[in-house]
């Protein structure tokens, strides 16, 4: 049996910033609302402000910015 999960649900479930538990959906919404740099996404969502100092999520966030 094949599972069909919509991209919207996957975005809500997928954590981009593990330290702060920020989802891909929240980051995409911030980008849609005008956050066009890592720093603006960071300010809008809190992503990248955790204990790793954005070492794990910065690249993923910048990729989402480029895709949008």
List the keywords:
single chain; 68 residues; mainly alpha; Arc Repressor Mutant, subunit A; two-stranded antiparallel sheet; 4 helices; globular; BFD-like_2Fe2S-bd_dom_sf; (2Fe-2S)-binding protein; BFD-like_2Fe2S-bd_dom
What do these coordinates show?
The chain is mainly α and 68 residues long. It has one domain: Arc Repressor Mutant, subunit A, CATH 1.10.10. Helices cover 50% and strands 7% of the residues. The protein has 4 helices and 2 strands, in the order H-E-E-H-H-H. The chain has helices at residues 7-13, 24-32, 38-45, 58-67, and strands spanning 15-17, 22-23. It has a two-stranded antiparallel sheet with strand order 1-2. Strand 1 and strand 2 form a beta hairpin. Helix 2 packs across helix 3 (38-45). The protein is globular. The N and C termini lie far apart (33 Å). The model has no long low-confidence stretch (mean pLDDT 95).
Distance between the termini: 33 Å
The CATH C-level class name: Mainly Alpha
- The shape is globular
Helix content: 40-55%
Number of helices: 4
How many domains? Answer: 1
Determine the mean pLDDT: 95
Q: In what range is the share of β-strand residues?
A: 5-15%
State the CATH superfamily name: BFD-like [2Fe-2S]-binding domain
Strand order of the largest sheet: 1-2
């Amino acid at each position: 049996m094949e599972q069909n999960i919509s991209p919207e649900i996957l975005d809500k479930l997928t954590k981009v910033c593990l330290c702060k538990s920020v989802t891909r959906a929240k980051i995409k919404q911030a980008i849609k609302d005008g956050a066009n740099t890592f720093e603006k996404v960071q300010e809008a969502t809190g992503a990248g402000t955790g204990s790793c100092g954005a070492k794990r999520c910065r690249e993923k966030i910048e990729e989402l910015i480029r895709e949008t």
